[in-house]
Amino acid sequence: MMKTTDLLIPWCGARQLLTDHFRCPETDTEFHIAGDLSDRPGFFRFGSDTLFGQCSSYRPSNSGDAQLPDVSDSILVSDAHVAMPFDATQVVDNLRLERYASTSSRGRSLQAKSASRSLYYMLRPALPMAIRKHFQRLYLRDWEQLFFPRWPVDLTVEHLFQKLLVLLMKSQGLTNIPFVWFWPDGAQSCTIMTHDVETPAGRDFCGQLMDLNDSFGIKGSFQLVPEDRYEVTESFLASIRSRGFEINVQDLNHDGQLFNDYDRFMQRAARINSYAKQFGSKGFRSAVLYRNPNWFSSLDFSYDISIPNVAHLDPQRGGCCTVFPYFIGDILELPVTTTQDYSLFQIFGDYSIQLWRKQIALIQEAHGLISFIAHPDYLIDAASRRVYIELLAYLSELRTRNETWIAPPGDVAEWWKLRSKLQLNKIGSSWRIEGPGWERARLAYAVVDGDSVSYELA
Fold it and tell me: Taking Cα atoms as reference points, which of 191, 169, 185 lies closest to residue 457?
């Protein structure tokens, strides 16, 4: 790694990214952009990870599939200074908000005014399941050729944060740095279970699904479609609330058109917000995970659960490339980090939890958020229900070993918002966590080892 003291270049916000994510003390290290950034964004590599943004050391590529230049050798470190050939804040925003998707040659998605999408959703209610699966498999036939985001879990944002932290510590001559651990009570990861209710049959199965969840002590949330799909009665809402499960709003009418047109979206958003008050909902999920985070500010919710980590198997391709919550304005995003049950059963024909276990292990390694979508509509048959019970048993086992904290998404969102305000203050030679919610917070240390970092609970 080269060193220089000639750093008369613009500042970039990498230090604030680290403070926000780790809740670590601020240091004197300044991050800078080394040289003039390219006139357009594109893909490039930082070590083994693919990033998207403007770059000063190489001409970024339009495709994430190409042989990409690695900018690692362009990092310059000196006392309390780090110069980089890209803006870390821009890159993280590009990933979390999926700004790369419209540029990538393989970032195919159903566009806002897609005639094929409109036709499909118009015909969908009349299509037999076998025909629907045929069209879906035809659309998704190239998913294995997608190199970015990385299947089955993409940790690009986490890897970037770790690399930035190593650079910061090296610039300060530090071997470790304290931070507020990610999850309450020292849990090694976090898990949420969400249930999207799509049909009258799924609605009528919710009681039995809650029985299954309760048999393992796992509470979750039900995302309800407020219009057209099925009747949502007050007694049905009360049956969910009385058992300690959360109720969230799922789209408006599940027609796949929510984000097609901004004016129509604003009209629908007003009705969605009224249903949020009626249901007492803090969370929102869009139908089929269609999304436009630039419009989220018009939704009156505490959190959203609509953006996948990797969207290879979704109609709207992309993915936020992180397994941690993050803020989009005032809304906290809790990304979907595992494969949906529908894709597992109907697209793959896989009636096992092997893929889920692989994804869980990768997310646990990063100490991130393990989030599931399990539809009551697709858990009615015995084969699917058997797999779901096996998953619940496995998650319960992980919780027993304190390897994961299982909580409804509203509780997780509340914790992450509390954590975002916690501060580390040094009292003598010791560090103390201060702020509302500090009682459940735990002190941890990021320890540098060569060019990598590991975490240790204090």
Answer: 185
Give pTM, 2 decimals.
Answer: 0.91
Coil, strand or helix at 344: helix
Rounded CA gap, 330 and 14, in Å?
A: 21
Cα–Cα distance measured from residue 303 to residue 248, given in angstroms and rounded to the nearest whole number = 10
- For the chain, the straight-line distance linking the first and the last C-alpha, in angstroms and rounded, comes to 31
Least-confidence region, from 17-21, 112-116, 156-160: 112-116
Express the helix, strand and coil content of the chain in percent, nearest 5 each. 40, 20, 40
Q: How many CB atoms lie within 10 A of CB 390?
A: 15
Contact by Cβ (8 Å): 341, 379: yes
Rounded Cα distance between 392 and 68, Å, is 41
Q: Are 164 and 17 in contact (CB under 8 A)?
A: yes
Which residue has tokens 């958003």?
A: 269
322 CB-near residues (< 8 Å, 6+ apart)? 95, 96, 154, 155, 156, 157, 158, 309, 335, 368
User: What are the tokens at 231?
Assistant: 């009747």
Q: Hey, which residues does 178 pair with through a beta bridge?
A: 445
Both structure tokens of 251: 């789209």
318: CB partners within 8 A, 6+ apart: 98, 100, 101, 107, 109, 149, 308, 311
Q: Please tell me the distance from the alpha carbon of residue 371 to that of residue 338, in angstroms, as a whole number.
A: 6
Instruction: Quick: pLDDT tens for 136-172.
Output: 555 556 656 678 999 999 999 999 999 999 999 999 9
Buried b / exposed e along 345-380 (16+ C-beta atoms within 10 A):
bbbeeeeebeebeebbebbbebbbbbbbbbbbbbbb
Report the run of H or E that residue 399 belongs to, with start and end. Answer: helix 382-400
The position carrying tokens 């058109």 is: 257
Task: Collect all residues with Cβ–Cβ distance below 8 Å to 336 and sequence separation of at least 6.
Answer: 289, 305, 306, 307, 308, 309, 371, 373
From residue 83, alpha-carbon distances to 1, 8, 13, 76, 291 in Å are 11, 10, 12, 5, 35
CB 237 within 8 A of CB 226: no
Structure tokens at 120: 């499909």
